[in-house]
Amino acid sequence: MGGNARPVRVGGHQPGLDGVRGLAILLVLAVHFVGNATPITWGERIAVKLGNYGVLGVDLFFVLSGFLITGLLLDSKGAPRYFRNFYARRTLRIFPLYYFVLAILFLVIPAVTTVPPALEEARRHQAWLWTYTANFFLAAKASWALTYVSHFWSLAIEEHFYLLWPLVVFSFRRETLERICLWVIGAALALRIALSLAGVSELSISVLTPCRVDTLCVGALLACLARREGGLALLLGRGGRAALAIGGITLAVSAWCALTQTGLSILHPLRTTLFALFFGALTVMSLRDPGQDLVARAFNARWLRTFGKYSYGLYVYHGILSQHMLRMNAEDRLGALLGGHSRGIVAQAVIGVGLSFLIALISYELFEKRFLALKRLFEAEKPASAAAPAVAPAGSAA
User: For 380, phi and psi rounded to 5 degrees?
Assistant: First the structure.
């Protein structure tokens, strides 16, 4: 585009990334409030099938986390209290809500009432949740065995990344870190294929940290490339073409899998990497000038960024609510009340998303913000020798 495009910096707050986070949580909400429905008509079957693709929202969360966390670590590398500031800020953001919910589910509720059998079963294995290892338990069981909180598997993977990645970033130069990201992406893909060929269930493969770390490293690699001389401009300029190309390949692979049912042990693991690359390109596109780019404008929409703002609470609470609605047979009850099963599914989705948002909003404003305010005591510092962040025109054509 022309020379009037506003500059975009590598670091700092980018509103478009809030929109990316908003899209990710909306995809996840679709899984549990639409994808879990029992379809009757062909229209419902299409809706449920599309809703189940919302599981890709977790992949988008992983890519975004890799991008943001790696960028933050690179920008503060060499600064005083590098480790202390990072771990303190992550603890204040993640732990209070996570452990608050576990305490309510496993300590408070059982003390005052009889818990449902499914929750009691999860309570018996709660140690896996308190230690952020629930994903390994689910992999061993090859099922969503921790009812009400099985969606916490992805939070465990994120926490493993937060724990180890700062040390990796601290220990290697950015150029070496790029090669590490490439090796990890390749190794995780190879591991998924090997486990798949060995007959390990897709569910187990999908929740194991070593099998999913490539998605995080796609985002990490982009953060590294963006900090090269002219790297951000290159990414912005090629992001659109990359998204179209990778999206086309992914659709072709998916169509082949659906039509032929051959090579699934290799193609399904490969598709996970393709989705990660596609979401990486999409994340880059969100950084463009919203005044000159349609995709960036969509990600900068206030309503989508609002969902992004409350995405953590939405993720934590919605899975519990969706399980409760499932066990109440909400879609059938609502369908009977509204005069049609399809209407029941729509009502379940509207009520589920609405209640999840309301609970997340209240939780954020009355509880989480108290801890987030303390993050000011651990502001990420710039190293004394840091140069000014690279800039690039945001309106580059696709």
Answer: -65, 125
Residue 384's pLDDT is 58
Q: How big is the CA angle at 94 (ends 91 and 95), to the nearest 5 degrees? A: 70
Q: Are 76 and 381 in contact (CB under 8 A)?
A: yes
Decide if pLDDT at 19 tops 70.
yes
Per-residue DSSP letters for 227-277? TSTTHHHHHHHHHHHHHHHHHHHHHHHHHHHHHH--SHHHHHHHHHHHHHH
Instruction: State how far the Cα of 326 lies from the Cα of 35, in Å rounded to an integer.
Output: 11
Which residues touch 141 (CB under 8 Å, ≥6 apart)? none
pLDDT at position 395 is 36
Identify the burial level of 327 via C-beta atoms within 10 angstroms of its C-beta, where 0-12 means exposed, 13-18 middle and 19 or more buried.
Answer: middle
Q: What is the pLDDT of residue 12?
A: 67
- Residues 244-258 have pLDDT tens digits of 999 999 999 999 999
CA 342 to chain centre: 29
pTM: 0.92
N-terminal to C-terminal alpha carbon distance within the chain? 10
Q: Are 139 and 202 in contact (CB under 8 A)?
A: no
φ/ψ region of 173 (left if φ > 0, alpha if ψ in -120 to 50, else beta) reads: beta
Q: Is the distance from CB of 223 to CB of 72 less than 8 angstroms? A: no
Token digits of residue 347: 């009502």
Q: What is the CA radius of gyration of the chain?
A: 21
Angle among Cα 246, 288, 19 to the nearest 5 degrees reads: 80
For 212-238, letters b (16+ CB in 10 Å) and e give bbbbbbbbbbbbbbbbbeebbbbbbbe
Residue with tokens 């049912």: 261
Sign (positive/negative) of CA torsion 233, 244, 68, 225? Answer: negative
pLDDT at 379: 84
d(CA 242, CA 145): 38
CA-based torsion, 159, 273, 196, 151: positive or negative: positive
Which 8-state DSSP code applies to residue 347?
Answer: H
Q: What residue type is 126 in one-letter code?
A: Q
Mean pLDDT of the chain: 92
Sign (positive or negative) of CA dihedral 83, 86, 91, 92: positive
